[in-house]
Design brief:
Blueprint lengths: L5 E6 L2 E6 L15 E2 L2 E2 L5 H17 L2 E5 L2 E5 L1 H4 L2 E2 L1 H12 L5 E2 L3 E2 L2 H15 L7 E4 L4 E4 L4 E3 L2 H13 L6 E3 L3 E3 L5 H7 L2 E6 L4 E6 L2 E7 L2 E2 L8 E4 L2 E4 L3 E2 L13 E2 L9 E8 L2 E6 L8 E3 L3 E4 H7 L8 E4 L1
Parallel strand pairs: 2-7, 3-8, 5-13, 15-27, 18-25, 24-26
Antiparallel strand pairs: 1-2, 3-4, 5-6, 7-9, 10-11, 12-14, 15-16, 16-17, 19-27, 20-23, 21-22, 23-24
Helix pairs in contact: 1-3, 4-5
Amino acid sequence: MGRTPLVIALVGAVVLAAPAVAGGADARIIAAGTSAGGVDLSGLTIDEAAGRLDTEFAPKLATPVVVAVAGRQFSLASSRAQVKFDPRTTAERAFYQGRTGLHDVPLAIEHSDDAVRAFVHEVDGRVGHPPRNARVRITLKRMVRVRARNGIGINEGRLAKRIAFALDHPAAPRALEANRRRTRPSVTGRDLRRRYATVLTIDRDHFKLRLFKHLRHSRTYGIAVGMAGLSTPAGLFSITSKQVNPAWHVPNAAWAGSLAGQVIPGGAPANPLKARWLGIADGVGIHGTAEDWSIGSRASHGCIRMHVHDVIALYPRVPLGTPVLIR
């Protein structure tokens, strides 16, 4: 037995698919009182019902959906929405479900939700503008803030649902109106102040550590940084560890001499990490020093040195995760 051929007809921009019945016309009779999409199909054969549905709905489905927003109109063609109406499937649905007592059956209509969402997003972009999130750029001397700004646009999800309903229900109005609304940014200045409650910057050229609280400069401290060949690394880091009277895990480096590889207890005379430790990355951190003369120079092996009284004052004000900009 060969396959049943498939007959495809184009009405306007709507695709109509109607499988031919092997052996001739389909004379099955639809039960009295049965309709599809509000169209009465009582007593019609499936072929006759498919023809009536085609005549009734194809022109309506080929009509574009027009959306009016802010004095402008935007048209969504059925072809772009990929609308497909199958009158024969609808007629067969009416035949079978009519026998079960279901009087009005839904139409066999499909459309592309992706196409509808793309259209709505395009409309939104042409009648409004998105909100601007607040943001901050960290520099050595100040926090450069860009303020948040409200946007304006349509409720895309709601409009997409209204368009989808109109596409699937030919009797529904195909001229829609949408109102614009204010849209708020997801990141505000308050969010930034909370997110960047504490920031440290390390100015290697001028030997300054600056503390910022809630995006405002709070205090500046003198520091020492890495000497030539053992420079303090540049970049954006964060505080990864904190210790009081830290032990010194001596690197296996030539400059460490006989202490290389050893662990010097916190507070020991041979331990150069005095009072407090604020770890940054790869063994580099902020700590107090007994060599006060070195503050204001390139004297360390990569770490940031501070006067002991300064690092003790700084320590409780800097939580883990604090951003640290080094330049």
